[in-house]
Design a protein that fits this description.
alpha+beta; monooxygenase activity (chains A, B); homodimer; 3 helices; 4-stranded antiparallel β-sheet; 105 residues
């Protein structure tokens, strides 16, 4: 269930959000976008969880892949709807993963 | 509820985990660690959510602050207990936040 990412360096987009009260269509669009993102060149995986705050981290090969995904037309439509309807607030952080380590039983 | 971070560059530690079936003491230790982390030099904030996967992102001024927090004795004890008892698997990613942007109603 954790994203299986390659050895660093690679990139992470941390998308943190708080939903508004109007969430009609949000879950469907979320699933669509995860599906669409996973088909993009340079996509390496993602992890997602939501309680009061929702956090989705998507992992990418390089900045160019992130830029192309941000400009994808369907994704832009989802971003517009997100601002208009679904999100009370959000923050996107573009990060270079410099080091990682893990543990698995 | 979103972390109020300064202008980049700063650092993010993405800690993604799946819990094991033995979670006794986990919630209490989590709260203790968030509290302790927030008192460390260089701590800038954090965001956290858990469903099947738990994601905690903590934000830091620089790599040195992250290193000192990792070596904190109480934190090391929590890390050891985490490996022994609470986590089925986890991954820690140390990232440099290069750019961020957001939206608030």
């Amino acid at each position: 269930m954790l994203a299986q990412t390659p050895a660093p360096p690679y990139y992470a987009v941390i998308f943190s959000s708080v939903l508004s009260e109007e969430t009609t269509g949000y879950t469907e669009m979320s699933k669509l976008m995860v599906n669409l993102a996973s088909q993009q060149a340079g996509y390496l995986g993602h992890e997602s969880a939501r309680n009061e705050v929702g956090i989705t981290v998507s992992y990418w090969k390089d900045l160019e892949s992130i830029k192309i995904w941000k400009q994808n037309l369907d994704h832009q439509e989802a971003q517009t709807l997100g601002k208009l309807k679904w999100y009370q607030c959000y923050k996107t952080r573009i990060c270079k993963v410099e080091r990682d380590y893990g543990f698995e039983i």
